[in-house]
Amino acid sequence: xxxxxxxxxxxxxxxxxxxxxxxxxxxxxxxxxxxxxxxxxxxxxxxxxxxxxxxxxxxxxxxxxxxxxxxxxxxxxxxxxxxxxxxxxxxxxxxxxxxxxxxxxxxxxxxxxxxxxxxxxxxxxxxxxxxxxxxxxxxxxxxxxxxxxxxxxxxxxxxxxxxxxxxxxxxxxxxxxxxxxxxxxxxxxxxxxxxxxxxxxxxxxxxxxxxxxxxxxxxxxxxxxxxxxxxxxxxxxxxxxxxxxxxxxxxxxxxxxxxxxxxxxxxxxxx
Amino acid sequence: xxxxxxxxxxxxxxxxxxxxxxxxxxxxxxxxxxxxxxxxxxxxxxxxxxxxxxxxxxxxxxxxxxxxxxxxxxxxxxxxxxxxxxxxxxxxxxxxxxxxxxxxxxxxxxxxxxxxxxxxxxxxxxxxxxxxxxxxxxxxxxxxxxxxxxxxxxxxxxxxxxxxxxxxxxxxxxxxxxxxxxxxxxxxxxxxxxxxxxxxxxxxxxxxxxxxxxxxxxxxxxxxxxxxxxxxxxxxxxxxxxxxxxxxxxxxxxxxxxxxxxxxxxxxxxxxxxxxxxxxxxxxxxxxxxxxxxxxxxxxxxxxxxx
Lengths: 271, 307
Description:
Number of helices of chain B: 11
Number of helices of chain A: 9
Low-confidence stretches of chain A: 1-6
Strand order of the largest sheet of chain A: 1-5-10-11-12-13
Mean pLDDT of chain B: 94
Largest sheet of chain B: 9 strands, mixed
Mean pLDDT of chain A: 94
Shape of chain A: globular
Structural class of chain A: alpha/beta
Shape of chain B: globular
Structural class of chain B: alpha/beta
Low-confidence stretches of chain B: 293-307
Strand content of chain A: 15-25%
Distance between the termini of chain A: 18 Å
Oligomer: heterodimer
Distance between the termini of chain B: 27 Å
Order of helices and strands of chain A: HEHEEEHEEEEEHEHHEEEHHH
Largest interface: A-B, 47 and 41 residues
Largest sheet of chain A: 6 strands, mixed
Number of strands of chain A: 13
Radius of gyration of chain B: 20 Å
Order of helices and strands of chain B: HEHEHEHEHEHEEEEHEHEEHHH
Helix content of chain B: 25-40%
C-alpha cells in the first residue's frame, strides 16, 4: 500500500498521476480535458487502463484515437474539435475537465483571473477563460501541484469556477448540471461529499502528515468518515492515496512519460 | 469583380479613434499582427478591443491604444501570462470587460445574427456577473423557467483577421486545424479586413483546400491585405509555427522599460518590411547564439510553402 524502498519506490508525482486518473474512473465516453502535465498523464493512464472509452485531444483541434506521449503528434484522429466546437461540447455535458486553480476555497470556488481587487489587481493572471461555463455544465475537478495557504484560501478573489455555495445561491439553472468532483494536490485528494458541500480530505499521499495539509490549507478541512485523529495517532484513520499498481507504473514510466516530465511538476521529495 | 486589395496602412486609415475593433486568432495563434502593427503606426487611440487575447492585446496595451478591453483571457500560450496585459491591468490602464469563453463566442454569434443577446448557461454563480453589471439574465418562457445569462451581442465597428489564403474579392481560407472565431468576428462587424499569407486566384483557393476551408465569405469583407508572415510572431499553421525565440525576447523586453524601448525601437519603429528585416537579423543572431557559430545563409526558415 505504501511506497516500497529501492529503485521501484513510487514517487509523489506517480501517486498524483494515479489520483488524477481516478477522477475519470467510470466516466464512459466523455472528453477528458486535463490541464497540466500530471492531469494529462492521469487522463492517458485512465484511457489505457480502466476507462478505455475516454476521448482525448491532441491539445489542438483533433480528437486522438490513440494515446500518444504528451507533446507528441497524434497519428490516429477520431474527430475534429476546434475551440468553437469544444465550447459547444461543454453545454452537452459530455466532458469532465480537470482545471488548475490559482486559488480555491472550501466550497470549490476557483480563481484563475487575478489576485487582489479585480478593479486593480495586485497580480493579473489569465482571465476567467471557460471556468464559469465548465462548472455549470459538466463535471469539474481541480489539480494543484503546490498545495499552500495562498492557493487553498478562505475566499477566492474572483470566482471563475463556481463552487457549491455560489451555485446554490444562483439557483436551479446553476445547480442543474453543477458537479465539482475532486481536488488533487501534491499533498492529497479532496472532495465535497459532505452534508454542507465543503471540502473534505479523502486521502493523504504517503509521506504526507495530516498536520502538513492543515498547515498548507487556509481553511478547516472536513475529515473522512471514521477518521479520528488524536494526539497519539495524529493521522488516525485518514486513508492513504492508492499507489499505482505495477502495470500502471510501467505505463507511466515506460509509455506515457519516459522523459520524467511529471517530476518537473511535482518534484520528488526527500525523507 | 470588385478588387478589395489594400495595404495594412489603408486598413488603419479606414478606422477611427474610439471604435470597437475585434481581432481574430486565439492567444498567440494566427493573430493579424501585420494589421496590429499598422494600428501601432497609426494615430488611432481610445479603442475598444474585442479579442481572445494574445500579443495583439499586449502590444496595443503597451502603446496606450486601448480604452476598453473585452476578453475571456490574454495569454501567449507557450508563455502563460502576457506581460504587457498584466502590467497594464496592474496599473489600471484601461477598462476591462472580462467574459467567459462561451459568453464571448455566443456574444459574437448574436452580433452576427443581429440578435440583441443569446442565452447561455454561464455566468450565474461566478463573479463574471459581478464585474459586468451590465449583463442581465433572462428567464425561459417555457415550463422549465430557467434563468440564464443574456449575453449581449458583441457588435463590432471593424474586425481584423489573418488567414492563410484569400482571393482579391475577400474570400478567406484557413489551412490550419482551427478556424478560431475568425468568421464570427467578420460577421459581427460592420467592416471586416482580412490579411493573408498570399492572395491567390479563386481557382487556387479551390486547389489549396476542400470547400470547408473557405472560412470567410467576401460578402462580409471590406478589404484584403497580402501580408506574408503577417501573423508573426504568432503561429499560422501550416505555413509556420510560433516564433518561440522571438516571443521569449518580447517577454524579456517587456519586463523593463528601457529594454522595451529598445525592443520597440528595433522592431516597431519602421514599416512592415523593416519589421521583417529586423526579425530576420534577430533570427540569425539567435541561431548564432544557439550553435555558437555564424550560420550565414542557413538560418532555418519556418515559412515554407506546403501543398
